[in-house]
Amino acid sequence: MTAQLIDGNALSKQLRTDVAARVTALKAKGVTPGLAVILVGDNPASQVYVRNKVKACEDTGMHSVLETWPTTMTEAELLARVDAMNNDASIHGILVQLPLPAHMNAQRVIEAISPEKDVDGFHIASAGALMTGLPGFWPCTPYGCMKMLESIGYELKGKHAVVIGRSNIVGKPMAMMLLQQNATVTICHSATKDLKAMTLQADVIVAAVGKRNVLTADMVKPGAVVLDVGMNRNDEGKLCGDVDFAGVKEVAGWITPVPGGVGPMTITMLMVNTLESAERRAA
Ligand SMILES: NC(=O)C1=CN([C@@H]2O[C@H](COP(=O)(O)OP(=O)(O)OC[C@H]3O[C@@H](n4cnc5c(N)ncnc54)[C@H](OP(=O)(O)O)[C@@H]3O)[C@@H](O)[C@H]2O)C=CC1
Ligand SMILES: Nc1nc(=O)c2c([nH]1)NC[C@@H]1CN(c3ccc(C(=O)N[C@@H](CCC(=O)O)C(=O)O)cc3)C=[N+]21
């Protein structure tokens, strides 16, 4: 058996067409959605990501501001820039690219972003809203994963979902979203004793670890849906996920590729969150 592919590029294209139409409608009302992206330091991977985010804004007709600061910037200086963006009426979403340099407290910087502009969904107010089922911004990566499940018409109610990874930006919010759709959710992490015993029970597996081949074919129940969040480099320097794609695609029912899977969906949901922030302001 060969799994069906969930194509993040194709789904993104569809969703961004809808975003672009809503941007046009909002502009007619005199509001142009605006995203501010702040990058500190010269991490080459981060530079690629932020450029992709700014380009996605331009493609959908949004306004964007990219600020790049040297690693020597102090936390106080960064907090001042966040504050300026909080008070800038042309900006509806603020993203401070992570990781930040070691001399900064990332959590403190995130909490400085106004929750109304927290399109990453990393603020404790956003996390609390997700956990309690109140309206708020959902973190883009797990939100994109939910859209991928929706795109294949997958009914989560009563299914067993296993999330590998428990970070505040991917694993934990992913588990909350799956729970909200009435899945039974297991969260695995580095202290999990028998990962394979957990994943073999899963109807849906989300791998969000950051290590190659965390999930191999022998760990997957035939027909399961496998979502690969991981972003790693293989020995040839090529981008790859956490899943042994070649092996797992022979067992799974559905699978997301890397690249072209969850990554583009993350950027798409950032556009959606920024648009909705602007729509709320215009309402
Ligand atoms: N596609 C996209 O858009 C995005 C991709 N990513 C990628 O997703 C991956 C995860 O990111 P992020 O959540 O930020 O990473 P973190 O490093 O914050 O979290 C990794 C998680 O994996 C767990 N873990 C580590 N080793 C194992 C193991 N052997 N078995 C089971 N669990 C393990 C850790 O456990 P513990 O908590 O016990 O340490 C931790 O909870 C990375 O590759 C990142 O680059 C991230 C964001 C967006
Ligand atoms: N404040 C903040 N918000 C983030 O959302 C955030 C962050 N910091 N720091 C880093 C991670 C990682 N992340 C990715 C987004 C898109 C791709 C993506 O588009 N990947 C393409 C490939 C890109 C390439 O070729 O390198 C793909 O999978 O097809 C990957 C990774 C967002 N993150």
Automatic annotation (TrEMBL):
NCBIfam families: PRK10792.1, PRK14186.1, PRK14189.1
Subunit and partners: Homodimer.
HAMAP family assigned: THF_DHG_CYH
Record key words, sorted: Amino-acid biosynthesis, Histidine biosynthesis, Hydrolase, Methionine biosynthesis, Multifunctional enzyme, NADP, One-carbon metabolism, Oxidoreductase, Purine biosynthesis
Its EC number(s): 1.5.1.5, 3.5.4.9
Residue ranges constituting the Tetrahydrofolate dehydrogenase/cyclohydrolase NAD(P)-binding domain according to the UniProt record: 139-281
InterPro entries per the UniProt record, alphabetical: Aminoacid_DH-like_N_sf (IPR046346), NAD(P)-bd_dom_sf (IPR036291), THF_DH/CycHdrlase (IPR000672), THF_DH/CycHdrlase_cat_dom (IPR020630), THF_DH/CycHdrlase_CS (IPR020867), THF_DH/CycHdrlase_NAD-bd_dom (IPR020631)
Short name of any one Pfam family annotated for the protein: THF_DHG_CYH_C
Protein family according to the UniProt entry: Belongs to the tetrahydrofolate dehydrogenase/cyclohydrolase family.
Catalytic reaction list: (6R)-5,10-methenyltetrahydrofolate + H2O = (6R)-10-formyltetrahydrofolate + H(+); (6R)-5,10-methylene-5,6,7,8-tetrahydrofolate + NADP(+) = (6R)-5,10-methenyltetrahydrofolate + NADPH
Species of provenance: Hydrogenophaga luteola
Superkingdom: Bacteria
GO molecular function, one term: methenyltetrahydrofolate cyclohydrolase activity
CDD domains, per the entry: NAD_bind_m-THF_DH_Cyclohyd
Residues involved in NADP(+) binding: G165, R166, S167
Pathway assigned to this chain's UniProt record: One-carbon metabolism; tetrahydrofolate interconversion
Tetrahydrofolate dehydrogenase/cyclohydrolase catalytic domain: residues covered: 6-120
Function: Catalyzes the oxidation of 5,10-methylenetetrahydrofolate to 5,10-methenyltetrahydrofolate and then the hydrolysis of 5,10-methenyltetrahydrofolate to 10-formyltetrahydrofolate.
Protein name: Bifunctional protein FolD
